[in-house]
Amino acid sequence: MSVQSLEIRRSSASVWGSPSGMRSVPTVAKYIDTSTCIGCKACEVACQEWNDLPPLSTQQVGTYQTMPTLDAGFWNLIRFDEREVEGGLMWLMRKDQCMHCAEPGCLEACPAPGAIVQYANGIVDVNQDNCIGCGYCETGCPFDVPKFHAKTGKMAKCTLCVDRSSVGLEPACVKACPTGCLHFGTKEDMVALGSLRVDQLKKGGFTTAALYDPQGVGGTSVVTVLAHADHPEWYGLPRDPHVPLGVRFWKNILRPVGLLAIAGAFVAAVGHYFNFGAKQVQGSADSETNLPQV
Amino acid sequence: MGLTRRTFLKAGTVGGSLALGFDLHEARAEMREFKISRTTETRSTCPYCAVSCGVIIHTLGDKAKNATASVVHVEGDPDHPINRGTLCPKGATLRDDINNPNRLTSPKVRRAGSDKWEAISWDDAIAQIAKHIKTTRDKCFVEKNAKGQVVNRNPGMAMIGGCTDTNEFNYLQWKFITALGIPYRDSQARV
User: Whole-model pTM above 0.90?
Assistant: First the structure.
Protein backbone atom coordinates (compact mmCIF):
# COMPACT_ATOMS: atom_id res chain seq x y z
CA MET A 1 0.00 0.00 0.00
CA SER A 2 1.48 3.30 -0.98
CA VAL A 3 0.32 6.87 -0.99
CA GLN A 4 0.24 7.03 -4.77
CA SER A 5 -3.51 7.32 -4.67
CA LEU A 6 -3.11 10.79 -3.22
CA GLU A 7 -3.13 13.33 -5.98
CA ILE A 8 -0.73 16.22 -5.79
CA ARG A 9 -2.28 19.64 -5.58
CA ARG A 10 0.97 21.54 -5.85
CA SER A 11 4.60 20.65 -6.33
CA SER A 12 7.71 22.71 -5.66
CA ALA A 13 9.60 24.36 -8.54
CA SER A 14 7.01 23.25 -11.05
CA VAL A 15 5.15 25.68 -13.23
CA TRP A 16 1.94 23.79 -12.69
CA GLY A 17 0.93 20.90 -10.44
CA SER A 18 -0.48 17.58 -11.49
CA PRO A 19 -4.03 17.37 -10.18
CA SER A 20 -6.18 15.56 -12.70
CA GLY A 21 -9.35 16.86 -11.10
CA MET A 22 -10.78 13.37 -11.34
CA ARG A 23 -11.20 12.90 -7.60
CA SER A 24 -12.55 15.22 -4.99
CA VAL A 25 -10.69 14.74 -1.69
CA PRO A 26 -11.56 16.62 1.49
CA THR A 27 -8.82 18.66 3.14
CA VAL A 28 -7.79 16.99 6.37
CA ALA A 29 -6.69 18.80 9.50
CA LYS A 30 -5.36 18.31 12.96
CA TYR A 31 -6.99 20.10 15.85
CA ILE A 32 -4.91 21.12 18.86
CA ASP A 33 -6.57 22.44 22.00
CA THR A 34 -3.77 24.06 23.99
CA SER A 35 -6.15 24.58 26.91
CA THR A 36 -6.55 20.85 27.57
CA CYS A 37 -2.96 19.82 26.82
CA ILE A 38 -1.28 18.55 29.99
CA GLY A 39 2.22 18.43 28.49
CA CYS A 40 2.56 14.67 28.90
CA LYS A 41 4.47 14.36 25.60
CA ALA A 42 2.75 11.14 24.54
CA CYS A 43 2.49 12.75 21.09
CA GLU A 44 6.25 13.30 20.99
CA VAL A 45 6.91 9.65 21.76
CA ALA A 46 4.22 8.33 19.43
CA CYS A 47 5.69 10.46 16.63
CA GLN A 48 9.20 9.12 17.17
CA GLU A 49 7.92 5.56 17.38
CA TRP A 50 5.73 5.65 14.29
CA ASN A 51 8.31 7.40 12.14
CA ASP A 52 11.12 5.13 13.39
CA LEU A 53 13.15 8.14 14.49
CA PRO A 54 15.86 7.15 16.96
CA PRO A 55 15.92 8.91 20.33
CA LEU A 56 17.86 12.17 20.55
CA SER A 57 19.60 13.54 23.60
CA THR A 58 17.34 16.01 25.32
CA GLN A 59 18.44 19.53 26.14
CA GLN A 60 17.50 21.34 29.31
CA VAL A 61 16.19 24.79 28.45
CA GLY A 62 14.91 25.72 31.90
CA THR A 63 11.44 24.27 31.40
CA TYR A 64 9.95 20.83 30.88
CA GLN A 65 10.55 21.24 27.15
CA THR A 66 12.43 18.33 25.57
CA MET A 67 14.67 20.53 23.41
CA PRO A 68 14.86 24.16 22.32
CA THR A 69 13.48 23.72 18.79
CA LEU A 70 12.25 21.11 16.38
CA ASP A 71 14.90 18.93 14.79
CA ALA A 72 15.26 16.91 11.60
CA GLY A 73 14.93 13.84 13.83
CA PHE A 74 12.27 15.32 16.13
CA TRP A 75 9.14 16.53 14.37
CA ASN A 76 6.79 17.11 17.26
CA LEU A 77 7.73 19.29 20.21
CA ILE A 78 5.64 20.43 23.15
CA ARG A 79 6.65 23.99 23.96
CA PHE A 80 6.30 25.11 27.54
CA ASP A 81 5.95 28.70 28.66
CA GLU A 82 4.93 30.51 31.82
CA ARG A 83 3.16 33.87 31.75
CA GLU A 84 1.81 36.07 34.47
CA VAL A 85 -1.76 37.04 33.80
CA GLU A 86 -4.35 38.81 35.84
CA GLY A 87 -5.15 36.60 38.76
CA GLY A 88 -2.18 34.29 38.59
CA LEU A 89 0.23 32.34 36.48
CA MET A 90 -0.58 30.59 33.21
CA TRP A 91 1.40 27.48 32.42
CA LEU A 92 1.14 27.23 28.68
CA MET A 93 1.85 24.26 26.47
CA ARG A 94 1.67 24.09 22.72
CA LYS A 95 2.33 21.28 20.32
CA ASP A 96 4.86 22.61 17.83
CA GLN A 97 5.00 20.90 14.45
CA CYS A 98 4.52 21.55 10.76
CA MET A 99 1.34 23.59 10.29
CA HIS A 100 0.64 22.24 6.77
CA CYS A 101 -0.26 25.66 5.35
CA ALA A 102 -2.69 25.90 2.47
CA GLU A 103 -0.14 28.22 0.81
CA PRO A 104 3.11 26.72 2.06
CA GLY A 105 6.13 29.00 2.17
CA CYS A 106 8.47 26.01 2.11
CA LEU A 107 6.96 24.74 -1.12
CA GLU A 108 7.14 28.18 -2.65
CA ALA A 109 10.79 28.65 -1.70
CA CYS A 110 11.91 25.16 -2.74
CA PRO A 111 13.97 25.13 -5.96
CA ALA A 112 14.08 21.34 -6.36
CA PRO A 113 11.27 20.01 -8.57
CA GLY A 114 8.95 17.75 -6.60
CA ALA A 115 10.94 17.93 -3.36
CA ILE A 116 8.05 19.52 -1.48
CA VAL A 117 4.56 18.55 -2.49
CA GLN A 118 1.10 19.38 -1.31
CA TYR A 119 -1.31 16.50 -1.65
CA ALA A 120 -4.90 16.96 -2.67
CA ASN A 121 -5.92 16.50 0.98
CA GLY A 122 -3.77 19.47 2.02
CA ILE A 123 -0.84 17.64 3.60
CA VAL A 124 2.55 19.20 2.82
CA ASP A 125 5.33 16.65 2.57
CA VAL A 126 9.05 16.55 1.81
CA ASN A 127 10.00 13.99 -0.81
CA GLN A 128 13.53 13.18 0.24
CA ASP A 129 14.31 11.53 -3.10
CA ASN A 130 14.05 14.90 -4.81
CA CYS A 131 15.30 17.08 -1.95
CA ILE A 132 18.69 18.69 -2.56
CA GLY A 133 19.11 19.83 1.05
CA CYS A 134 19.56 23.51 0.22
CA GLY A 135 17.51 24.64 3.21
CA TYR A 136 15.50 27.28 1.33
CA CYS A 137 12.30 25.78 2.75
CA GLU A 138 13.49 26.71 6.23
CA THR A 139 13.83 30.31 5.03
CA GLY A 140 10.42 30.22 3.42
CA CYS A 141 8.64 28.77 6.45
CA PRO A 142 7.08 31.40 8.74
CA PHE A 143 6.97 28.84 11.57
CA ASP A 144 10.62 27.70 11.31
CA VAL A 145 9.68 24.05 10.89
CA PRO A 146 11.74 22.18 8.25
CA LYS A 147 15.16 21.20 9.55
CA PHE A 148 18.32 19.95 7.90
CA HIS A 149 19.32 16.37 8.61
CA ALA A 150 23.12 16.30 8.58
CA LYS A 151 23.46 12.55 8.03
CA THR A 152 21.24 12.36 4.94
CA GLY A 153 21.80 15.90 3.72
CA LYS A 154 18.05 16.31 3.31
CA MET A 155 15.33 18.31 4.96
CA ALA A 156 12.81 16.63 7.24
CA LYS A 157 9.62 17.56 9.04
CA CYS A 158 6.22 16.31 10.17
CA THR A 159 4.28 14.60 7.37
CA LEU A 160 0.93 14.65 9.20
CA CYS A 161 1.48 10.88 9.02
CA VAL A 162 0.56 10.86 5.35
CA ASP A 163 1.19 7.10 5.31
CA ARG A 164 -1.49 6.68 7.98
CA SER A 165 -3.97 9.27 6.79
CA SER A 166 -3.86 8.00 3.20
CA VAL A 167 -5.12 4.63 4.41
CA GLY A 168 -7.74 6.21 6.64
CA LEU A 169 -5.97 6.31 9.99
CA GLU A 170 -5.44 9.31 12.22
CA PRO A 171 -1.83 10.52 12.76
CA ALA A 172 0.15 8.74 15.48
CA CYS A 173 0.23 11.77 17.80
CA VAL A 174 -3.52 12.26 17.59
CA LYS A 175 -4.18 8.63 18.36
CA ALA A 176 -1.94 8.63 21.42
CA CYS A 177 -3.16 11.88 23.06
CA PRO A 178 -4.69 10.78 26.39
CA THR A 179 -6.54 14.02 27.19
CA GLY A 180 -8.17 14.28 23.77
CA CYS A 181 -6.71 17.70 23.13
CA LEU A 182 -5.74 16.44 19.68
CA HIS A 183 -8.30 15.51 17.06
CA PHE A 184 -8.15 14.56 13.41
CA GLY A 185 -10.73 14.94 10.67
CA THR A 186 -11.68 17.14 7.79
CA LYS A 187 -10.67 20.77 8.04
CA GLU A 188 -14.32 21.76 8.12
CA ASP A 189 -15.05 19.51 11.09
CA MET A 190 -11.94 20.58 12.97
CA VAL A 191 -12.76 24.27 12.54
CA ALA A 192 -16.28 23.58 13.82
CA LEU A 193 -14.86 21.72 16.81
CA GLY A 194 -12.48 24.60 17.47
CA SER A 195 -15.27 27.17 17.35
CA LEU A 196 -17.27 25.18 19.90
CA ARG A 197 -14.30 25.01 22.24
CA VAL A 198 -13.56 28.73 21.80
CA ASP A 199 -17.15 29.56 22.78
CA GLN A 200 -16.78 27.33 25.81
CA LEU A 201 -13.54 29.04 26.82
CA LYS A 202 -15.06 32.48 26.37
CA LYS A 203 -17.96 31.56 28.63
CA GLY A 204 -15.42 30.25 31.11
CA GLY A 205 -13.73 33.63 31.39
CA PHE A 206 -11.06 33.41 28.69
CA THR A 207 -12.43 36.35 26.75
CA THR A 208 -9.54 36.46 24.28
CA ALA A 209 -9.78 32.81 23.26
CA ALA A 210 -9.71 32.18 19.52
CA LEU A 211 -8.89 29.62 16.89
CA TYR A 212 -5.44 30.05 15.32
CA ASP A 213 -5.87 29.38 11.61
CA PRO A 214 -3.72 32.14 10.07
CA GLN A 215 -5.10 33.43 6.79
CA GLY A 216 -1.74 34.97 5.84
CA VAL A 217 -0.68 31.51 4.69
CA GLY A 218 -4.12 30.62 3.37
CA GLY A 219 -5.13 28.87 6.58
CA THR A 220 -3.40 25.83 7.99
CA SER A 221 -4.23 22.14 8.24
CA VAL A 222 -3.32 22.37 11.91
CA VAL A 223 -5.87 24.48 13.76
CA THR A 224 -4.97 25.51 17.29
CA VAL A 225 -7.27 26.69 20.07
CA LEU A 226 -5.50 29.39 22.08
CA ALA A 227 -6.96 30.59 25.38
CA HIS A 228 -4.88 33.77 25.05
CA ALA A 229 -5.12 34.38 21.34
CA ASP A 230 -4.25 38.04 21.84
CA HIS A 231 -0.73 36.84 22.64
CA PRO A 232 0.10 34.07 20.14
CA GLU A 233 3.81 34.73 20.85
CA TRP A 234 3.26 33.27 24.33
CA TYR A 235 2.76 29.98 22.55
CA GLY A 236 5.70 30.53 20.20
CA LEU A 237 3.40 31.35 17.28
CA PRO A 238 3.83 34.32 14.93
CA ARG A 239 1.02 36.88 15.16
CA ASP A 240 0.42 37.17 11.44
CA PRO A 241 2.55 34.65 9.53
CA HIS A 242 3.28 35.28 5.87
CA VAL A 243 5.53 33.73 3.31
CA PRO A 244 8.61 36.03 3.37
CA LEU A 245 8.42 38.88 0.88
CA GLY A 246 11.78 37.95 -0.66
CA VAL A 247 10.55 34.44 -1.42
CA ARG A 248 7.32 35.79 -2.89
CA PHE A 249 9.20 38.29 -5.09
CA TRP A 250 11.68 35.68 -6.26
CA LYS A 251 9.13 33.02 -7.04
CA ASN A 252 6.18 35.08 -8.28
CA ILE A 253 7.95 37.86 -10.17
CA LEU A 254 11.61 37.17 -10.77
CA ARG A 255 11.22 33.53 -11.75
CA PRO A 256 8.38 33.96 -14.33
CA VAL A 257 10.18 36.99 -15.76
CA GLY A 258 13.37 34.95 -16.00
CA LEU A 259 11.55 32.09 -17.71
CA LEU A 260 9.90 34.52 -20.11
CA ALA A 261 13.29 36.05 -20.87
CA ILE A 262 14.77 32.65 -21.64
CA ALA A 263 11.82 31.70 -23.81
CA GLY A 264 11.90 35.11 -25.50
CA ALA A 265 15.60 34.81 -26.24
CA PHE A 266 15.07 31.37 -27.70
CA VAL A 267 12.13 32.43 -29.84
CA ALA A 268 14.11 35.43 -31.06
CA ALA A 269 17.10 33.25 -31.92
CA VAL A 270 14.97 30.76 -33.83
CA GLY A 271 13.08 33.56 -35.56
CA HIS A 272 16.31 35.20 -36.54
CA TYR A 273 17.64 31.95 -37.90
CA PHE A 274 14.53 31.34 -39.97
CA ASN A 275 14.41 34.90 -41.26
CA PHE A 276 18.06 35.58 -41.87
CA GLY A 277 19.68 32.17 -41.83
CA ALA A 278 23.07 31.31 -40.38
CA LYS A 279 25.61 34.06 -39.85
CA GLN A 280 27.44 34.94 -43.04
CA VAL A 281 31.07 35.87 -42.78
CA GLN A 282 31.89 38.24 -45.58
CA GLY A 283 34.41 40.56 -47.11
CA SER A 284 37.57 38.62 -46.55
CA ALA A 285 40.13 36.90 -48.69
CA ASP A 286 39.84 33.95 -46.33
CA SER A 287 36.07 33.73 -46.66
CA GLU A 288 36.19 30.34 -48.32
CA THR A 289 37.68 28.75 -45.22
CA ASN A 290 35.08 30.48 -43.03
CA LEU A 291 37.72 31.69 -40.59
CA PRO A 292 36.88 34.83 -38.67
CA GLN A 293 38.51 37.97 -39.89
CA VAL A 294 41.43 39.09 -37.80
CA MET B 1 11.42 32.44 -45.71
CA GLY B 2 12.17 28.91 -46.84
CA LEU B 3 11.36 26.15 -44.40
CA THR B 4 13.19 23.01 -45.41
CA ARG B 5 12.52 19.59 -43.96
CA ARG B 6 15.86 19.74 -42.15
CA THR B 7 15.22 23.05 -40.36
CA PHE B 8 11.73 21.87 -39.45
CA LEU B 9 13.18 18.79 -37.71
CA LYS B 10 15.85 20.87 -35.97
CA ALA B 11 13.30 23.35 -34.68
CA GLY B 12 10.99 20.52 -33.62
CA THR B 13 13.70 18.83 -31.56
CA VAL B 14 14.82 22.00 -29.83
CA GLY B 15 11.26 23.15 -29.23
CA GLY B 16 10.32 19.75 -27.84
CA SER B 17 13.18 19.74 -25.36
CA LEU B 18 12.21 23.23 -24.27
CA ALA B 19 8.63 22.15 -23.67
CA LEU B 20 9.92 19.26 -21.55
CA GLY B 21 12.02 21.74 -19.61
CA PHE B 22 8.91 23.69 -18.76
CA ASP B 23 7.02 20.67 -17.53
CA LEU B 24 10.04 20.14 -15.23
CA HIS B 25 8.92 17.13 -13.26
CA GLU B 26 5.98 14.89 -13.00
CA ALA B 27 6.14 14.26 -9.28
CA ARG B 28 4.73 10.98 -8.15
CA ALA B 29 3.31 10.80 -4.68
CA GLU B 30 5.00 7.55 -3.79
CA MET B 31 7.05 8.29 -0.74
CA ARG B 32 6.60 5.84 2.06
CA GLU B 33 4.81 2.62 2.66
CA PHE B 34 2.25 2.08 5.38
CA LYS B 35 4.55 0.11 7.62
CA ILE B 36 1.97 -2.05 9.39
CA SER B 37 -0.22 -3.02 6.46
CA ARG B 38 0.48 -6.76 6.78
CA THR B 39 1.82 -7.14 10.32
CA THR B 40 0.21 -9.56 12.75
CA GLU B 41 -1.87 -7.77 15.38
CA THR B 42 -1.93 -9.10 18.93
CA ARG B 43 -4.00 -7.52 21.68
CA SER B 44 -2.32 -7.01 25.01
CA THR B 45 -2.29 -4.84 28.12
CA CYS B 46 0.27 -2.18 28.90
CA PRO B 47 2.30 -3.39 31.91
CA TYR B 48 3.31 0.00 33.30
CA CYS B 49 0.60 1.22 35.66
CA ALA B 50 -2.70 0.07 37.10
CA VAL B 51 -4.75 1.94 34.50
CA SER B 52 -4.12 -1.10 32.26
CA CYS B 53 -4.46 0.43 28.82
CA GLY B 54 -5.18 -1.94 25.98
CA VAL B 55 -2.53 -2.07 23.28
CA ILE B 56 -2.13 -3.74 19.91
CA ILE B 57 1.28 -5.24 19.26
CA HIS B 58 2.30 -5.40 15.62
CA THR B 59 4.77 -8.12 14.72
CA LEU B 60 6.62 -8.97 11.54
CA GLY B 61 5.25 -11.74 9.40
CA ASP B 62 1.90 -13.52 9.29
CA LYS B 63 2.76 -16.32 11.75
CA ALA B 64 3.69 -18.66 8.90
CA LYS B 65 5.99 -21.55 9.72
CA ASN B 66 9.06 -19.91 8.26
CA ALA B 67 8.53 -16.41 9.67
CA THR B 68 9.97 -15.28 12.98
CA ALA B 69 7.82 -12.66 14.65
CA SER B 70 9.46 -9.52 15.95
CA VAL B 71 7.74 -6.48 17.44
CA VAL B 72 7.85 -3.54 15.04
CA HIS B 73 5.13 -1.27 16.39
CA VAL B 74 2.80 -0.88 19.36
CA GLU B 75 -0.18 1.41 19.54
CA GLY B 76 -3.32 1.83 21.60
CA ASP B 77 -6.27 -0.49 21.14
CA PRO B 78 -9.24 1.61 19.99
CA ASP B 79 -11.68 -1.10 21.11
CA HIS B 80 -10.37 -1.16 24.67
CA PRO B 81 -12.86 0.56 27.01
CA ILE B 82 -10.18 2.03 29.28
CA ASN B 83 -8.02 4.00 26.88
CA ARG B 84 -9.94 3.79 23.58
CA GLY B 85 -6.72 3.87 21.57
CA THR B 86 -4.80 6.47 23.53
CA LEU B 87 -1.55 5.92 25.38
CA CYS B 88 0.70 7.90 27.73
CA PRO B 89 4.33 8.66 26.84
CA LYS B 90 5.50 5.55 28.66
CA GLY B 91 2.95 3.31 26.98
CA ALA B 92 3.84 4.78 23.61
CA THR B 93 7.41 3.48 24.05
CA LEU B 94 6.32 -0.15 24.55
CA ARG B 95 7.97 -1.31 21.34
CA ASP B 96 11.39 -0.45 22.76
CA ASP B 97 10.42 -1.86 26.14
CA ILE B 98 9.58 -5.23 24.58
CA ASN B 99 12.71 -5.26 22.41
CA ASN B 100 14.96 -4.19 25.28
CA PRO B 101 17.74 -6.80 25.63
CA ASN B 102 17.59 -6.37 29.43
CA ARG B 103 13.92 -7.31 29.61
CA LEU B 104 13.25 -10.18 32.02
CA THR B 105 11.72 -13.11 30.14
CA SER B 106 12.17 -15.94 32.66
CA PRO B 107 11.89 -16.24 36.47
CA LYS B 108 14.84 -15.48 38.70
CA VAL B 109 15.34 -16.05 42.40
CA ARG B 110 17.33 -14.21 45.07
CA ARG B 111 17.77 -16.61 47.98
CA ALA B 112 17.66 -15.44 51.55
CA GLY B 113 21.01 -13.87 52.45
CA SER B 114 22.22 -13.87 48.84
CA ASP B 115 23.11 -10.78 46.83
CA LYS B 116 22.67 -12.44 43.44
CA TRP B 117 19.77 -13.28 41.17
CA GLU B 118 19.85 -16.89 39.95
CA ALA B 119 17.97 -18.34 37.01
CA ILE B 120 15.23 -20.80 37.94
CA SER B 121 12.73 -22.78 35.88
CA TRP B 122 9.01 -21.99 36.08
CA ASP B 123 8.29 -25.44 37.57
CA ASP B 124 10.93 -25.06 40.28
CA ALA B 125 9.85 -21.50 41.01
CA ILE B 126 6.20 -22.49 41.50
CA ALA B 127 7.09 -25.56 43.57
CA GLN B 128 9.37 -23.55 45.85
CA ILE B 129 6.89 -20.70 46.26
CA ALA B 130 4.23 -23.27 47.22
CA LYS B 131 6.58 -24.74 49.81
CA HIS B 132 7.32 -21.26 51.28
CA ILE B 133 3.62 -20.46 51.43
CA LYS B 134 2.89 -23.69 53.29
CA THR B 135 5.75 -23.17 55.80
CA THR B 136 4.88 -19.53 56.46
CA ARG B 137 1.19 -20.24 56.83
CA ASP B 138 1.77 -23.09 59.28
CA LYS B 139 4.17 -20.94 61.29
CA CYS B 140 2.06 -17.76 61.45
CA PHE B 141 -1.53 -19.03 61.38
CA VAL B 142 -3.83 -17.42 63.97
CA GLU B 143 -7.03 -19.34 64.51
CA LYS B 144 -8.54 -17.19 67.28
CA ASN B 145 -7.95 -13.62 68.42
CA ALA B 146 -7.45 -12.42 72.01
CA LYS B 147 -11.19 -12.42 72.61
CA GLY B 148 -11.43 -16.04 71.50
CA GLN B 149 -13.25 -15.23 68.24
CA VAL B 150 -12.44 -17.41 65.21
CA VAL B 151 -10.46 -15.31 62.72
CA ASN B 152 -8.35 -17.85 60.72
CA ARG B 153 -5.73 -15.19 59.95
CA ASN B 154 -2.37 -15.60 58.24
CA PRO B 155 -0.57 -12.36 59.17
CA GLY B 156 2.86 -13.67 58.11
CA MET B 157 2.14 -12.98 54.45
CA ALA B 158 1.02 -10.23 52.12
CA MET B 159 -0.15 -10.52 48.55
CA ILE B 160 -0.06 -8.01 45.73
CA GLY B 161 -1.70 -8.44 42.34
CA GLY B 162 -0.48 -7.39 38.93
CA CYS B 163 -1.74 -4.28 37.17
CA THR B 164 -2.50 -6.17 33.96
CA ASP B 165 -4.72 -8.75 35.66
CA THR B 166 -8.23 -9.12 34.29
CA ASN B 167 -11.43 -9.04 36.35
CA GLU B 168 -11.68 -12.81 36.13
CA PHE B 169 -8.12 -13.26 37.28
CA ASN B 170 -8.63 -10.82 40.16
CA TYR B 171 -11.74 -12.75 41.24
CA LEU B 172 -9.76 -15.99 41.42
CA GLN B 173 -6.86 -14.24 43.10
CA TRP B 174 -9.18 -12.79 45.75
CA LYS B 175 -10.60 -16.26 46.45
CA PHE B 176 -7.09 -17.66 46.77
CA ILE B 177 -5.93 -14.86 49.12
CA THR B 178 -9.03 -15.29 51.28
CA ALA B 179 -8.57 -19.07 51.39
CA LEU B 180 -5.05 -18.53 52.71
CA GLY B 181 -6.34 -16.05 55.29
CA ILE B 182 -3.97 -13.29 54.14
CA PRO B 183 -5.09 -9.97 55.61
CA TYR B 184 -2.66 -7.70 53.73
CA ARG B 185 -3.90 -7.74 50.18
CA ASP B 186 -3.96 -5.53 47.15
CA SER B 187 -5.15 -6.64 43.74
CA GLN B 188 -3.81 -3.39 42.19
CA ALA B 189 -7.23 -2.96 40.60
CA ARG B 190 -7.32 0.82 40.47
CA VAL B 191 -10.12 1.25 38.01
Answer: no
